């Protein structure tokens, strides 16, 4: 029997989907969860606004607010949507999204590429170490290919010439920010920075390991924390219609 989703996972990085599967499998054992995907093509302008419009077209057809969650830029999109349409969001779970929410692995990669006198391949190899730790050469080569695809088709708002910024702060919905203790991209300082913005039901959770893709290495532990967060919420939460936080990029 078909069951309407209670939660929606946002993916705007098709090349990185494999790192989400174990967590989604765990969550699907506890609740009905759907996936919303967006793929950037070379012929399209890089625009979070386009993705937000398409996401709204999907969510406004739902008969009730959903739990939104996503990793990295998927989480950023969820945050921007919750700021704009809080009445349509049951809660917000952000994975590897710091208090300055536009920062992602690509922002670090382009900064390194601009500063270091190294080739693209050398910088990507160092990025693999930052994201996953030291890997055997065949695995590292495969991961570099994945990151190259992500540079080509993800919605990350960064380029070699410009790193985008999004105003810090949460949204007028219950929020959970998750990260890893050993993440070099969303380091503990960026994760703990959320505490300045927390509301009564909000929380910050730090995984003991796993770096940027901690949900891939610790899917059950991460899933248990997310389910506990959802279960801590009251049956219904009223949301204000007004937008409390700016959502413009600069």
Automatic annotation (TrEMBL):
Boundaries of every AB hydrolase-1 domain copy: 63-134
Alphabetized UniProt keyword annotations: Hydrolase
One annotated GO molecular function: hydrolase activity
UniProt feature coiled coil, ranges: none
Pfam families in the record: Abhydrolase_1
Gene3D superfamilies found in the cross-reference section: alpha/beta hydrolase
SUPFAM superfamilies: alpha/beta-Hydrolases
Origin superkingdom: Bacteria
UniProt name for this protein: Alpha/beta hydrolase
Native source organism of the sequence: Lusitaniella coriacea LEGE 07157
